[in-house]
Amino acid sequence: MAGRPGRPGAVVTFDPGRLGVWSGAEHFDVRPTQVAAYAAATNEPAGPYREGKLTPPVFALLPAIDVYPHEIERLFGRTLSSLGSVHGEHDLLIDEPIGPLTTVTTRAAVTGVHAKASGTAVVVQTESRTNGGGLVNTQYAVQFLRGFDAGTSAGTVPPSWLARDAIRNEPPAANVTLRVHPDQSRRYAEASGDFGDYTLDDAAAHRAGFPRPILHGACTMALVGRAVTVACGGGDPARLRRLAVRFSAPCFPGDELTATVWELRDAVPRANVAFEVTDQEGRKVITKGLAEVSA
């Protein structure tokens, strides 16, 4: 899980002493217009979000994504695009929902670098707080640097790696169909500010090794969060307290996805639900999913 140790003669491309060092706090203003656009872009029901009463749970990724990529770039002294970075995993642990018309402060630290045969997994932890200092959420993102050899492994693994083999109750509790609209990537980019070129441009997608533009991982995660909430939480987004995903294959605009949801038999900290997502061809696009849905 934690990657391989350094190979004899390998060039170590980062300073392990910088792991666990927190960035300064960045401020993110939660605007009702952006909340409404984000909800529409992730196929959430319009009412409560357009009225400015609450934010979708996975909206919490936006302040974190504003901060943590820069910490990876500082560690390696290169841009994420030059490192072949893709969003490999994400684990969102919610302490309290983000309220509309608030300001959230977020800090980040790279906590682990794990060299593997096909690239390097970089673990980043973020914390988001209210202006008063109350913890809103903790997140663990894994960016996979395709074909990049960090030279050695160091630091910690994300909590979700420790629960990947949890036993699920059979049969599944639910199967939920998710439709990815043809314009979903464009709508998500406009709502989130994430204009990653391989999500919007054919040539950029081909250069990145994809047959056509892919859907943002964070958008796929938001769609799945809604599915888990419907299956296990009575459709109440406030009951979703954790959502952890591993992106195993790209999702494309126009896909039809199926989220299969199980209750967990094993006792796992902050998780009582497991899930996987497949596309219309049977490919698994999310594996080892975990969620906590409150009673």
Tell me what the structure shows.
A hairpin with a 2-residue loop joins strand 3 and strand 4 (119-130). By secondary structure, this protein is of the alpha+beta class. The chain has one domain: Thiol Ester Dehydrase, Chain A (Roll). The chain is 20% helix and 34% strand. The protein contains 7 helices and 11 strands. The two termini are 32 Å apart. Helix 1 packs antiparallel against helix 5 (184-192). It is globular and about 50 Å long. Strands 1, 2, 3, 4, 5, 6, 7, 8, 9, 10 and 11 form an 11-stranded antiparallel β-sheet that branches. The mean pLDDT is 93. The longest helix is centred in the C-terminal third of the chain and has 16 residues, at 217-232.
List keywords for this structure.
alpha+beta, 11-stranded antiparallel β-sheet, Thiol Ester Dehydrase, Chain A, 295 residues, 11 strands, single chain
